[in-house]
Amino acid sequence: KIIICTDVDGVFESNPKVHKKASIIPYVDRSNIDEVLKCAGPSLKIDVTGGMRTKVALLYDAIKSSNSVGYILNGSKAGTIYNFLIGKGANFTEMRW
User: What digits encode the pLDDT tens for the residues 74-91?
Assistant: First the structure.
């Protein structure tokens, strides 16, 4: 498993910091990766992370080349990583090749 932690609950159809009613995209694979990359935007501020689009693209390349499963989840919210690891109540986006 490859896990990327960010400051939102996963990949959304639009930026949840701008659009409060944005819906999470629970699953990404080769059938929807192109559409997801169109939805995922750049960072809203100057930083080294490249925004969600960069995270999605890099994670997808990593899972494709390693035959792993990838996850994007909120690492800044207390309990999210623990709940993810024990399989209880965490929001996230799962990526498979």
Answer: 999 999 999 999 999 889
